[in-house]
Amino acid sequence: MPAELPVLQSATLPSDAVEVGRIGEAWGIKGWFKIVPYSADPEALLGGGNWYLQPSEKGAKSFFSGTVLLSVKQAREHSDSIVATAEEIPDRNGAEALRGARIFISRADFPKAADDEYYWVDLIGLDVLNREGVSLGVVKDLMSTGPQTTLVLSQEVSGDKPVERMIPFVSAFVDKVDIEGRRITVDWQPDY
């Protein structure tokens, strides 16, 4: 007799949804599953609550399509990974059926960042200007380089391919981050 698939409620992906990881293999026999987080600090995943799932973009096809809601009962760190369990997943077969699903969380459900701390997702797209008001580009990515994070900027130059700059995201170079104003002010010159 084939295993029953979990019943998942269809949902609309929130406009502020952020993809934070994917579901890995089943863990144990009681419906727990491993998570592959996209961040070295998966605090948003550990809060539990509502996760929005979408099928994997590659690999095996999921048993569901579109966006579905998963009501997470508990998520916690275990050894070197994250494990979770949800209301809709009663057993190992249900957990295996979710393997590869992409996990999204509403940005509004992220834990509040401490003063002078920022989620990378909030920095992407911000304009970067130096102290003289000269535009250095827009944050297109961030890169962890061991002891520090580096802003990766892209700036369109008329007729040429975009200029890419990297600026260490440390207080020695970053004067101010204004999330509401969508700008970062830095002590940096265009010819560095």
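the 2nd protein, sequnce then structure:
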Amino acid sequence: MAKFKAIRLIGIGDDGCLSLSSRAYNASIDCQILVGGERQLAFFPDHPARKIVIKKNLKQLASDIDEMSHEYNIGILASGDPLFFGIGTLLIKRIGIENIDIIPSPSSVQLAFAKIGKPWQDCRFLSVHGRPLDGFVNKVQSHRKVAVLTDQDRSPQQIARRLIDYKDEAWAFWVCENLGGVDEKVTHFDHTRALEIHPSFSPLNVLIMERPPSWQPRPGISFQSEEAFSKRMPRKGLITKSEVRLLTLAKLQIQQADVVWDIGAGSGSVAIEAAKCCPEGFVYAVECDPQGIPFCQENIFSHQVDNVHLLEDRAPECFEKLPDPDAIFVGGSKGSLQQIISKGMERLKPQGRLLVNAVTLDNVAEARQAFQQLGILPEMVMIQVSRGVPLAGKYLKYEALNPIHMFSVTKGES
């Protein structure tokens, strides 16, 4: 057998040393230091090694392990597969894979699927362990089967409540507790509300979610009509028309984990469609009109995009509250278009995209002037859409929508 490296990252199950392969057990024998959580270290009461409990400062711990490994053999005990939402990624980044032996055990998710007898190659894996639930509902919208690592503060019941709030209830659930331990338990729920009212679970659990066979994922390119959104109804409604919205999203080139600003969100249609394009990111929808806020909030819930943060505030004054964006859409400005463009370009990340949609000739002139002052030549497009509408009898005619002037730029490297 090849000699082990000084640092050995050893996966261990909830049944302790019984879960270790002979290779994992042999790797632990000559360690002078064992590092792990209190639960993992308790599986080695008679081991003569010095024991270090993992606490919160993991980066410092990784540096300490690297330094100590010049003198000692170090065993790091981790739950299941250390590279599955575990400490392995951090250690490799800080120490290097060439200095670590990784010996995994089956992950908790692998054990959970074995218990319920379902394949898991088509599963979406999520962890809310120590992470907020923001964006969880949007992340699962394109998936039939999801496995979730939970914790005491983000329990299966809280996940069920969030799904109910965002009107996404058609799931079956399995809560798999203390997998591999003496008090292992698997509970099946055939509906979201049944899970919501369950009294309690062990903090050590895996939640498996599955949609019914009839379910279909939402399309890759969304093309929702205006009627799909709640909106104020002066004239034809304060909402970006679907054809314009589609081109807007294309020009913003939103990536999976982008941060997007929607300035002058109105009914929120662009923010909502943008959120579907960045399920791993977040959209910040800014609207200063208090009458529009309830409509925008209703649309966020009904379209199941919990990665949209709605701010009742005025731009550009609110920009200091927001994280730097990868993309900015300006659909409304309330007379502050030049300042929004200027400050938005300052905050935009390198290679980020800014798009202004102007309806009035005044805003067209103001946008042009703002970009000229910044020494930027934007790409300019005017889009004019006409829709067929019935006329008297069997006839049809085209009815023109307002033309939209689009100013788009990509920020260069600073």
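The two ends are 53 Å apart (CA to CA). The first helix runs from residue 22 to 29.
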